[in-house]
Amino acid sequence: MAEQRAARQARLSPSQTPPFDNLPPDAPIAMPIQDFARQPLMGRMRAVQPVDYHMVARRILVVAMSAVPAWIAMREMQRTIGMDGLSGWEVLYLLLFIPLFAWIAFGFSTGLLGFLVTTVREQKIMRRLDAMPAQPPRGRTAILLPVCNEDFLGVLGRLSIMERSLARTMGADRFDVFILSDSSAENGVMEAQTYSQMRRSFTLPVYYRRRAENIGRKPGNIAEWVRRQGGGYDYMIVLDADSLMSGQTMTRLAADMERHPHVALIQTIPSVAGASTLFARWQQFAGRLYGPISAIGMIWWSGSEGMFWGHNAIVRVSAFAESCGLPELPGRAPFGGHIMSHDMIEAALLRRSGWSCHMVMADDSFEEFPPSLPDLAIRDRRWCQGNMQHVPLLKNIVGLHPVSRFQLLVGASAYATSPLWLAMILLIMAGEFAGAWTTVAMLPSGSLLALTAVLLFGPKLMGIAWALWAPERREGFGGTMSILRGATADIILSILMAPISMLTQTINLAGILAGRKSAWNGQTRDRDGIALRDAFRLFRPHVVLGAAMVVAAIASGISMIWLSPIFVGLLMAPFVASLTARKDLGRVAAAHGVFEVRDPWWRQVRVTELARPAPILRGRELAIPARPLALAANDGW
Fold this sequence. Notes:
The protein has 26 helices and eleven strands. The model is unreliable at 1-16, 123-133 and 600-637 (pLDDT under 50). The two termini are 47 Å apart. Helix 4 crosses helix 10 (278-302) and helix 20 (532-538) crosses helix 23 (573-580). Helices cover 57% and strands 8% of the residues. By secondary structure, the protein is an alpha/beta fold. The strands form two sheets. Strands 1-4-3-2-5-9-7-10 form an eight-stranded mixed beta sheet, with helices on both faces. It is globular.
């Protein structure tokens, strides 16, 4: 029947193509639209809990560790430039310098706490988790895979890996898979035909539905499934089109939800996998090397106020339906309309309703990374718009937990740091040009410069130390020398990348504030190179600003030494983007032990390159270790 329906659709024009679905019987559940001006009654009752002074102390420690270096920096700069009073130029400089210094200190503090947790308490944590019985889940779990104009064969290839892994675990019969498509009508025909041909090769029930109208993007897609099918399931594991997660991790997440009925969300911290271009390999290496200590530090102080990243997470369906019906925001896009960065708001709404939200490290939770710098910038612009939408919601949503408000504020302020850095650089140049100061006088003193270097490079050094700490982790990066080679290359590329990202995010933020909204289409997940002329067209503003800095510095006599990392990065932007988007350079780097990350074969295969995923997987053994989650969100949850 499904094959006949797909054949009929193929004969229709794209504009005539109806929606397609192959679903189990409906099991509706109510999902009311939330009133942000009033906290739900049940949420107020459930939210009345004793104060966890242990977690309060952790959060005070993080704030203090961030504020103290900022206070030291402020006093040192006042001593350096304010001995005869502060001019208007100098006051403006301090207003830019101190928040940026505090932001760097916050990142360092989170990484330091994560490093201490992983090194001092790692064995204790692992023993406690190993003792926890991994019972098969009793409730039903839906695995949701939203897609929108993706490489559908790649999607099915990754899905085939996951569902075959899941089929080998206890309790696999309690899981169903739903592919939820928001693709165009033309792509929908191809998806329906491919699904109809492939669905019998899956070992678990795999359902497919393409909506007639793409209302609300991904959150609207999931909300429609919840209202139509959510009543038949206790939990839903939400994935992205590029997600990979082992069956053991999925069953463990479902079992943990059953063990902790007050928990509504468990967000895993996915690692980057499937990298092939030099850019993606670099980000994969950096994420694996430096990411864990920062993530664990964030888990340590977040506690039951964890964040939701919209994928690679399990959610309690009844809690989500009760708490997360998102309204359209008043006004026009980019600030009005549907909420784009819905995931952080949904976590905040769950916590507002009294549910616990946790983040955990998991061995086998993966995602892919954009293959090039321009692709990352496109994704980053969408995130920027979504996070800017959160600013008015900080005061408009009644009943948010203070930590949830802080997380939303941090997410929005992350995109304000780039224009602040650019403003401070231009201010220093303008001040010297106007005779208000000399650049040398405005630079930090030796002690403050050393503190700045510690805060900037400390997380990287701690990540290297963490990797070298245990032989298993060390070998996972190809050994000590491979780690050091990769870290050296990362520092060089990061120095070039910093001014590029600074200007890109500034341009994105300016465009959003000017009212230019972002599109939300299928992401580019595979690329091999960018023509240099295209790179120059994309990064023309960077080259122009870099050249203008050089001309201004020469004309006004400003020292070129402190400016050189900035204008060199800007002038090199097209070359960096073009070269790092190449796969052959990624292979060369791997052959020389640079950006090396060793994984079992199934984690390295880029499934989007497989022509027929299911037959290729036959006969392969999925060597997935049955390991527990690596770190609980806090003690006793």
